[in-house]
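Subject: Sanity check before I submit

Could someone independently write out the structure tokens for this chain? I want to compare against mine line by line before I put it in a report. The sequence has 228 residues.
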Amino acid sequence: MSKKKKIVVLTGAGISAESGLKTFRDSDGLWEGHDVTEVATPRAWIKNPALVLEFYNQRRKNAAEAKPNAAHFGLASLQDDFDVSIITQNIDDLHEQAGSKMVLHLHGSIFEMRSEQDESLVYEIREDIKLGDKAEDGAQLRPNIVWFEEQVPMIQYAIPLVLSADFFVVVGTSLVVYPAAGLLNYAPIEIPKYVIDKKIPPTNAINVTNIEKPATEGIKDLIALLKG
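---
Independent answer below. Compare away.
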């Protein structure tokens, strides 16, 4: 048997938008009526933890109600012919629901919570997190989400994946949030790269095929190109 070629996919909010999950980039930096600095930064947590918890409790409800769309299922179907790794900026579990087996969450998961003091104390959560809910170390529990202005520890695992790719695909991301946006620069120069978005972001990458369509339509084109 020949070894399957490796596809590494970076996905962003655009792929989940078609499942009804809103993105803050589509509304002038406001996310459900909130400035992101008021709900998605360590400063916001210190200033008003109740507001931050309320905001993410609603995100959790929305994510739990969402269903994978054709783009999620399309990427999962590529596993039949390729070794597929998905690096996602999204905090939902729609890739997993669609059947993707290798999913690395760069920015954490809405269905996890952790101690505000000890990042290693992580727990599954499907309900609300409330003020006064404590981890084993006695510290307040917070969403296990990487906020703006925080380090992104999973990037150390994402970079080697991209370096090992035979094909690199970007889907539904504006390529403005770092360090995730910088992953495109780690893709080997000689490999084919595909960028799928309803508005193609500018890049300096070489060997790029742009597919300027929403994720559900663009993934169909991608599958045809890869299997053609």
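---
OP: Matches mine. For the report I'm noting this point. The longest strand covers residues 108-115.
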